[in-house]
Amino acid sequence: MGAMREADVKTDELIELLAQDAAPPWPYRTVFLVAVTGGVVMSALVFHSFIGVRPDVDRALETARFLFKFVITIALAVGATGLALTMSRPGARRGRWLKAGSEQEQFEIVR
Predict the structure, then answer these.
(1) Are 58 and 43 in contact, with CB atoms under 8 Å apart?
(2) Of 86 and 1, which is predicted with more confidence?
């Protein structure tokens, strides 16, 4: 039992030492959003270098179908980014990003 108590003390000391570490230089939200922005820029550059711009982009911009693709993609990206940011922090409040999901689950259960 004595050996077990020594291990508990060492664990408690380790936890206290870890808790005393310096805070990160930037908030997590900032690091996350910079990483997402960098990913979007990199994927746009790779897409443009391999595929390029459509030759008839001026005509395509006039159609609702072409513009609707961007509206849907941006809406999904914003929602997914907000959800990923919320879920990546342990103990974070559910916030508005997960409320929609919980309402959908409730609707499915009622059906």
Answers:
(1) no
(2) 86
